Amino acid sequence: AGRVSGIALGMSTGDIIGVLGRPDSSANVQGGTMLRYASRGLAIGVARERGAVIIAVASPAAGAVDGVRVNDPMSVVSSRWGRPVAARDNLSAYDRGGWLAVVEGGEGARVARITLRVPQ
User: Fold this and answer.
1) What is the DSSP letter of 83?
2) Rounded to whole angstroms, how far apart are CA atoms 112 and 12?
3) In a 10 Å sphere around its CB, with 0-12 CB exposed, 13-18 middle and 19+ buried, how is residue 67 labelled?
4) C-alpha to C-alpha distance for 33 and 30, rounded to whole angstroms
5) pTM score > 0.85 for this model?
6) Which residues are CB-contacts of 71 (< 8 A; sequence separation ≥ 6)?
7) Among 105, 113, 115, CA closest to 74
8) How close are the terminal C-alpha atoms of the chain, in Å?
9) Could you tell me if residue 14 is left (phi over 0), alpha (psi between -120 and 50 degrees) or otherwise beta?
10) What is the pLDDT of residue 95?
């Protein structure tokens, strides 16, 4: 499964808090909870039945996702992950085998955000 900062897709809220501590903020959203760890640049969407279904990474402080970090040159993404399965505007989606990584390109052709998601 997709993993960053010791957190993996599918983990429960309790397991996430066990690894990262209490979130800076949390909110109930349709079907689950959104946990935000601002200092780490992480937002984690946890579905009641399925665990973590989305992990948004917005800071290099969160660490690498399969060898790619926020602020890396976009060329690092293609050299590590190959061609995207879908691309539109500044977003590119990569099939990582059972999960998707969606990369948002930012200023200076650098990675602005990486979102790990469970396929629908």
Assistant:
1) S
2) 27
3) exposed
4) 8
5) yes
6) 60, 110, 111
7) 105
8) 15
9) alpha
10) 95
Rounded distance, CA 24 to CA 59, Å?
A: 15
The token duo for 79 is 């050299």
Torsion angle of C-alpha atoms 63, 66, 69, 73, degrees rounded to 10:
160
Q: Are 64 and 4 in contact (CB under 8 A)?
A: yes
Task: Say which residues have a Cβ less than 8 Å from residue 35's Cβ, sequence separation at least 6.
Answer: 13, 16, 17, 23, 25, 26, 42, 43, 44, 46
Other C-beta atoms lying within 10 Å of the C-beta of residue 13? 18
Q: Write the Ramachandran bin of 39: left for phi over 0, alpha for psi from -120 to 50, otherwise beta.
A: alpha
Q: What is the pLDDT along the chain (120 residues), one digit of tens a residue?
A: 799 999 999 999 999 999 999 999 999 998 899 999 999 999 999 999 999 999 999 999 999 999 999 999 999 999 999 999 999 999 999 999 999 999 999 989 999 999 999 987
Rg of the chain over Cα atoms, rounded to whole angstroms, equals 14
CA angle 13, 17, 19 (to 5 degrees): 120
Per-residue model confidence (pLDDT) at position 7: 96
